[in-house]
Amino acid sequence: MSARTAAAVALLKGTSPETLDGFLKLSAMFESTTLDPHSRETVVLTVAERNQCHLCVDMHEAKMAALGPAPDAERLAAVRKFTLQVLASSGAVTDEDLAAFEKAGYTRRNALEVVLGIGAYTLSTFANRLTRAA
User: Fold this and answer.
1) pLDDT value at position 2?
2) Cα–Cα distance measured from residue 2 to residue 44, given in angstroms and rounded to the nearest whole number
């Protein structure tokens, strides 16, 4: 954990331990989903970039780099696009959006796992920005 990340965690723990606990539980649940690690990091980065949480962007770009080259860049582009569509529509994606996501090799279960990731990292990015950690 970087010093910046540790400071953000300490700040949140001191201000609202319940919020930190909620994020840690949601994050652990997201990490246990059937989405592959590259796809999970793509979801996180998409949310972090959209919400302008520079702390999360930096941390998750490093995690993505540590994973090595993505096996299928087009597949990651599809999960990024789907994540943005879920955010833009508050979950009411079109049948066509869902079909395109599935065509890229994802499942309906994965679609709901994207929602879980969005929830976890919306909590994190909003909290980081609110506490001025990011």
Assistant:
1) 76
2) 18
